Amino acid sequence: MVVPSEDITLQHAIDLFREAYGSDPDIAAYAPGRVNLIGEHTDYNDGFVFPLALDLRTFVVGRGSLLIKPPNPKAALTESSAISESEQGIVSFVADKDLAPGEPKWANYVKGVVAEYVKDVPAGKYLVFEAAVASSVPLGSGLSSSASLEVAMATFLEQILGTTPGLITKALRCQSAEHKFAHVPCGIMDQFVSALAKTGKVLLLDCRSHTETLVPLADPDLVILVTNSKVKHNLGGSEYPHRVAQCKAAVEGLQKKYPEVKSLRDVTLEQLDSVKTSLSELVYRRARHVISENARTQAAVAALRRRDYAAVGQAMTESHASLRDDYEVSCSELDFLVSEALKVPGVLGSRMTGGGFGGCTVSLVTKQAVGILEVKIKSAYRARFGVEAETFVTLPSAGCGVVNLKKKEEEKGRRGGGRGAGPIVSLGWGLVVLAAVVAVGIAVARRR
């Protein structure tokens, strides 16, 4: 996979807006997808995660304003509407406190964020906007395309409202939007890293205190390879909510002997073993994964700080085994990709990443070996499953932000590029440049 430049994805969003509305947008906001190096299914258990932002982003461009509410409370308000190239039909809604989830489901991610931000609208006014979205984050791949859309939309709305609630508040609002409107009980990791990531740094997040520590990953001989299995998942209607419930059941069982326990973050493996007979075998294994994964994550962070990359890789590989056997969120395709990657000299570790049941693997590999790894893993996957796995190399990138479109256009003019001259290219597999033209609210299909 050839990762599109920021300019290409942004230009695609601008072109969509011009085509839909016949004028130029004046706001452009973006947020990245993410890959989690280690620390899976620990975030909603108050644990530790260690993700990094990708150089794959969702852009939201458009315009908006605050209108004065008519004095008659029964008077109709100007609706927002959403239209997506990848979906059928137009979605219309009033962006106010009465906004509720509904059909089509892809629109709920944007609606949810809007609902979180209407509280910032001054009394006597209401929000109206038009927007277009383009994204290079593949859908259903476990790279947090939904969180990147949510955080990009939040950043876009902040420009209209003139508010700056802070990056952590933004992440928490986006998480709340996913809980309430997409009905996915996700942890805070995806939205947090999309909002707060820094170039060249992996972000260690304490999901209880919401404190982050940035750890450099800047060795010139080391890269991260992401491999897309092409098996798509949908966490909202999958086993994901069941895992959350099973972890809650484990905590309730542990509290009978250890009342001080508030989450699996507080539990040692020894404590878990002491109540094993009072838990179902399934709940025990779910808890064992979370507890051991927290320990692996902290060990991997310590190893990265001392540049012991072999130890980081070992923790990643052990994480996959636990996700496969104890948490049971892997699948045959992901297991195969990890197994094949580990056969290649120079691969230090490999694991599934994201919620599971499909999506991507992440491998820590020397730069010298990455080309061989890509060739061998694609060939083996094609022979086994008849599918073209897609790969891309990445390093830690920055979190959300805003583009000065006026300055961008001036720079393009100095280079001789005319209005709308941005190239439209075939972005291949997973660039799934999603484009969704939104007239006041847009969104894209979700999946984490």
Automatic annotation (TrEMBL):
Claim: Metal-binding is one of the keywords in the record: yes
InterPro entries membership: Galactokinase, Galactokinase_CS, GalKase_N, GHMP_kinase_C_dom, GHMP_kinase_C_sf, GHMP_kinase_N_dom, GHMP_knse_ATP-bd_CS, Mevalonate/galactokinase
EC number: 2.7.1.6
Coarse class of the protein's main subcellular location: plastid
Transmembrane segments: 424-445
GHMP kinase C-terminal domain ranges (all copies): 301-381
Localization per record: Plastid
Domain Galactokinase N-terminal: 16-63
Protein keywords: ATP-binding, Carbohydrate metabolism, Kinase, Magnesium, Membrane, Metal-binding, Nucleotide-binding, Transferase, Transmembrane, Transmembrane helix
Family (UniProt): Belongs to the GHMP kinase family. GalK subfamily.
Full protein name: Galactokinase
Protein's organism: Nannochloropsis gaditana (strain CCMP526) (Green microalga)
Organism lineage: Eukaryota, Sar, Stramenopiles, Ochrophyta, Eustigmatophyceae
